[in-house]
Amino acid sequence: MQTGQAAIDRLCDPEARVSAHYVVEEDGTVWNLVTEDRRAWHAGISFWRGHETLNGRCIGIEIVNPGHEWGYRPFPAVQMAAVATLCQGILSRHPIPARNVVAHSDIAPDRKEDPGELFDWPWLAAQGIGLWPDFPANVAASSVDEEKLRADLAAIGYPVPAVGQGAAAFATLLRAFQRRWRPARIDGVADAETALRAEMVMRSVQNTG
Question: Where is the N-acetylmuramoyl-L-alanine amidase domain (predicted)?
């Protein structure tokens, strides 16, 4: 939607058949649309860590931004602060592991891009929400073991397409991974830095449980 109000109107429209537990406006206002003990309809067809149809097992937060279709832009500091406070409250009420703080683009990489490459995941992790490994500044070019890369992505939780589904499907998944973990380069190419970051995220996931 082009505005926060338009998004809220749609999320509150029974005919739209979409909803979210929370909406965070650009000015930091937080709207609670669905109680946390009820299912909200924001994820759709989705997958994470072996589970499908994630609406029934997650809390959905929509963060107002025009998005890639209507003029994607950075998230204001006041909005990020509101997201952090909201998430800290949710985590105090629910035993959600850091590896399960995910983007819509993580769980539905072929359909969703939000919150996108401008969302400040490193800052959020510093507030105790989610993960962000200490990635190296530079990575030397080298060959990539695609089988290992696929295994690392699967271990993180991603819906890795079968080899037989073709290069395009795997590139779509890599773009989703890069959008979250390597936002400076979103090209779907399995290069050395993408592979290294996947391994580092995988190891962080293993260490945190």
Answer: 1-116
Residues 138 and 123 in one domain: no
Structural domain of residue 44, as residue ranges?
1-132
Q: In CATH, what number is assigned to the domain containing residue 163? A: 1.10.101
Residues 123 and 137 in one domain: no
Would you give the distance in Å from CA 37 to the centre of its chain?
22
With a cut of 70, which residues of the chain have pLDDT below it? 209
Residues 89 and 1 in one domain: yes
Q: Mind listing the pLDDT tens digit for each residue in 104-145?
A: 999 999 999 999 999 999 999 999 999 999 999 999 999 999
Strand (E) or helix (H) holding 31: strand 30-32
Which residues in 42-167 belong to E strands, given as ranges?
A: 47-48, 51-52, 61-63
Active site residues: 62
pLDDT tens string 74-92: 999 999 999 999 999 999 9
Total domain count, the chain: 2
Question: Of 132, 166, 189, at which residue does a domain stop?
Answer: 132
> What are all long-range contacts of 1-4, with beta carbons under 8 Å and residues at least 24 apart?
1/70, 2/66, 2/70, 3/64, 4/64
According to DSSP, the β-strands at 47-48 and 22-24 are: unpaired
Task: Indicate the pTM of the whole model.
Answer: 0.94
Closest CA to 149 of 166, 173, 184: 173
